Amino acid sequence: MTHVVTDNCRGCRYTDCVASCPVACFHVNEVRVYIDPAVCIDCSACIPACPVHAIVEEFDLADDQQHWIRINAEAAQRYPVIRARLPPLDGADARRQQLGL
Amino acid sequence: MSTHSSETLVVRGACPQDCPDTCAFLYHVEDGKLVEVTGDPDHPMTRGGLCVKLKNFAEHHYNPDRLLYPMKRVGPKGSGMFERISWDEALATIKSKWTDIIAQYGTQAIMPHAYLGHQGTLNGLTAGDAFFNRLGSTVAEKTYCESGSSTAWIMTVGPTGGMDVESLAVSKYIIVWGMNMLNTNLHGWPFVLKAKAAGAKIVVIDPVRTRTAKQADWHIRIKPGTDAALALGMMNVIISEDLYDHDYVEKYTLGFDQLKARAAEFPPERVSDITGIPVVDILTLAREYAGTQRSAIRQGVAVERSPGGGDAVRAITCLPALTGAWRYPGGGTIEMPIWEFPFKFDFMCRPDWIPPGTRVINELDLGAALTGAMPLDPPIKSLFVYNSNPVSQAPGAGTIVEGLQREDLFTVCSELFITDTAKYADILLPATMQAEQLDIMVTWGHLYMHLNQPAIAPPGECVPNVELFRRLAKTMGFTDEHWDLDDWEMLRRCYDWDAPVMKGITLETLKEKGWMRLDVGLPDERTPHATGDFKTPSGKCEFASSLAAGGNFVVPVWRSGYEAMQPGTPVDPVPNYIPSVETMMPDGASAFPINLVSPKPHAFLNTQYANEPTQQRRQGEQIIVIHPIDAGPRSIEQGSYVRVFNDRGAFEARAEVSEDVSPGLMMTNVGHWPGLNRSGTAVNSTTSTRHCNLGQAGTYSDNRVDVQRV
Ligand code: SF4
Ligand code: SF4
Ligand code: SF4
What we know:
heterodimer; A: alpha+beta; Alpha-Beta Plaits; two-stranded antiparallel ribbon; 4 strands; B: alpha/beta; Rossmann fold; Dimethylsulfoxide Reductase, domain 2; Barwin-like endoglucanases; six-stranded mixed β-barrel; 22 helices; 28 strands; 26% helix
């Protein structure tokens, strides 16, 4: 099992999640982060840290979110590990408001 | 206590589990109900997160299967048929049974059985010691885990805390030896990552390519049970290439010449044959380890789980004194820092009450003790189980079940649930969970003291262990002052609050803050053995142990404080490589060709939480990991159901075919409840009850089996 970062992360990239992860399993690209399922230890420490509720435990994914398991696994191979917080992207707050969070 | 919002009360607590992280809890309570348990974000280890195992900890308190009232058995033994009774009836039954047994067989016909199902000062490992010592029962040696390492550590460096896990952050070379930290010490891992980000090399020594091994810079696959040979091989290289710290060795160690002679017996070629590690890797490891200062070794308990495991821990523990690693912050070795805490074991265990000459029975020999395979006079006529679940966790489960079925055995279990062991009880007593009781948590993985304060009322008629033993003492007519002390007074007497490490720590400050660090120096500066100061008889790191003269022993904390009746079997003063019995059998000498190791599960804490559906989903069913070379000829494919067996027993599991294990090696996990498995059995039906060479520890990793598709 694992945890996955879903669509809410896109365009925000609040990286509070990264600071809470004990095993450095987040990977980052220009717009968002992904979790490496081979490293994630399922502790859920990142879930409450994310201000836009982007992170979901695999078993809690809705049917229409299942594809995020594969997307996270593949993207984690492609993008570098992120170990420390980054400033949120421009427009992150706007997106957060748009999501109603 | 503080008020979080208008409705939520936040109470400080700490994790009760046998895990080195001892996390700082925040209990969130609404209308008297525990709604959530979170990690304290301000605690340097916990850092706001718990772990997968404790994810549904609040709900666990409300599990509908919880044992809430005393019960008596109404069906055949093991049928799980019980009927509610009152505490008065339960206690009266125990008294009358025990009184008869004592009259006929004496007090030693009663045997307690406990381990670390709870890790509190009042309710944990030693909760029943004072009571059973007062009763004069057989002394039970509780050596499920860590006892071999404890003896080895004390023989080599004495009861010192050693290195602080937080000091790993400033290490430059870290060897994680026999531990899957990501699964079982996850709050220690951020310090490893910090060191790595600052350029440290991370090496993992493990027979299995674990999650942790995958994260390391270098994974060294070692054959189970051969760690002593590797450590001695490293010493061989370090000494012959003159990479050791002459000054440190001369001033702060004892027995270098003897160690040198022993290491000379372990040239890299021989070590390679034994361990399965290429010669070049042995050379590189030794040179890098000795050549990089600020080197640290994080020892895991896996090292002790073989017949020569005790000497392996001794050999590994010698390494940082040989290279002088102790001189530097971030240098040395971590085994368990528990020895830093100023416990008053004499009060906690009351060994002064043990009648002289009382016998000792090791808990891992429970099956033989109950069935009569071990000749005993008097026989065991009553067993009292708390904080433990031997049918799942002890080796040789089949014999234990056979013993528990004895009609003339009176078994009492204090439990949270009707476990595979509790099923065989005559009387069941309901125990509290962590949010319902007061305690100071014992920790073996960091240097903080934690107070766990009750956040909710106990349900039904559950009582904490400390109260259980008070009630039993009164029932048995004991009138000592000990049984009139309340929990706070007991806590006050369990620690030496005036010890230097307790500077600033009082029960009052703990009440307010929840946790406090011992005054032992800061992690990035601390060098406990820069100038020796080992807690051995010589004050030095003893390569040649002076305690060896007394023979093998179990550290008294694992045996109710009892000093007498130690095993006393001869021990070589200098650590040696003692081959495993089953693993190292030449091919063809055993009918069972594969070695099986059984580390801890990911989503359960030993057996705890393994009855929670959410955790079962996270952990998955019982699996074995098997190499394609072993799977192929047996027609075992990914997902096939298999039967794992030897002459001791069998269990069924789903196969995962993977090169994470080597050919000839399989891995499964301990912790699944046998009764919830397909076969009604689990891995300990196959393990042997042989003991490790030191401290009577279990040898779960020395287990030859075969496997077939079902
Ligand atoms: S905190 Fe949430 S939104 Fe921000 S990077 Fe992490 S997952 Fe994405
Ligand atoms: S669940 Fe834990 S390990 Fe997994 S990504 Fe979140 S914080 Fe990291
Ligand atoms: S089991 Fe260990 S890691 Fe998990 S909450 Fe308890 S102490 Fe922390």
